[in-house]
Amino acid sequence: PTIKPASNGLPASIKAGTTSTPRRSVLILIGGNFSSRSPRHTEAHLGDFAGILQVDGYGGYAALAKRRQQVSLAFCWSHVRRKFYDLAEKSPVAAEILKRIAQLYKIEDQVRGSSAEQRRATRDEHSRILVEDLKVYLDVRLRQLSAKSKLAEAIRYAVSRWDGLVRFLDDGRIELDTNTVERAIRPLALNRNYAKRRIMRMCRRRGVPSPLFSAAYVAA
User: Fold this and answer.
1) Amino acid 13: pLDDT
2) CA separation for the pair 23, 25 (Å, rounded)
3) Buried b (16+ CB within 10 A) or exposed e, 131-162
4) What is the mean pLDDT of the chain?
5) Among 1, 147, 160, 219, whose CB has the most other CB atoms within 10 angstroms?
6) Residue 80's closest CA among 188, 157, 186?
7) What is the mean pLDDT of residues 168-179?
8) What is the percentage of the chain residues whose pLDDT exceeds 70?
9) What is the distance, to the nearest Å, from the Cα of residue 149 to the centroid of all Cα atoms in its chain?
10) Rounded distance, CA 73 to CA 184, Å?
11) CA distances from 57 to 32, 81, 194, 205 (A)
12) Alpha-carbon distance 118 to 158, whole Å?
C-alpha cells in the first residue's frame, strides 16, 4: 500500500505513515524523534489512535499495547535481521537465519506496489510456511545454545516479538519493516543534527551553562 503522512491529528513529532485503506489504521511509528521513549511519553503522542502500530524494536511499545487494547503491534523484521549480522561470519546458525529472512524479503519485492489483498494472498501462499519453519528452527536452536550467548540473545529478541512479527501475514497493509519511513525521515534527522550543532556553538560562544542547552534545543 501507499504510505502517506498521518492525518489523524497526531503531533508532527511522530514520524509516521498510515495506509489509505479506511479500515483500522496502520501507523508506522519511529520513536527516535521523541524527547523521551518512555511508554507514557509515546502514549501522549498517540492520543486516541486505535489500530495497528508498526514499530521498531524498542521494548517499551509492548507495555503500551498492554494498556491500550485498541492498539496491536507489528514488529520490524529489519531490526530482527540486524541482530544476526555481526554473528553470521562465525555462526552458521546466524547465517542460516539471515538466509531464511532474505527469502521473505524476496517475496516482498515481488508484491511491492500490489494491493493489500494481493499482498496478503501472496504472503499466505508463500511467506507463511517460511515463517512457520523459521519459528521451529529458532525454537530448536535456542534450546541447544547457552542462554548467555549472543546468538541466544538474538533469537530471544525475535521469538519474544513473534506475535507482532507474523502480523504482516494476515494484513497486506502492514510492511515487513519500518525502513520505508526511516528512509523518508533521514533528511529530517540530518537537518535536526545540523541545528543541534549550531545551537551548541551558539551556547559555547555565549557561555550558556550546559543544563540550559536542552531547553534551547527543544525550543529550536
Assistant:
1) 35
2) 6
3) beebeeebeebbeebeeeeebbebbebbeebb
4) 74
5) 1
6) 157
7) 90
8) 60
9) 24
10) 21
11) 11, 11, 26, 39
12) 26
What DSSP element (H or E) covers 5?
strand 3-5
Distance between CA atoms of residues 22 and 48, nearest Å: 16
Smallest Cα–Cα separation from 76: which of 190, 192, 157?
157
Phi, psi of 160 (to 5 degrees): -70, -15
Q: Work out the pLDDT band at 28, boundaries 50, 70, 90.
A: low
Residue 27 sits at φ, ψ, to 5 deg, of: -115, 125
Contact 134, 100 (CB under 8 A): yes
Between helices 92-111 and 128-144, what is the axis angle to 10°?
170
Between CA 115 and CA 1 the distance in angstroms is 6
Say how far apart CA 91 and CA 187 lie, in whole Å.
35
- Is residue 183 over pLDDT 70? no
Residue from 63, 99, 59, 66 nearest 81 by CA: 99
Whole-number Å distance between alpha carbons of 195 and 102: 37
Grid cell locating 105: 524479503
Residue written as grid cell 513529532: 13
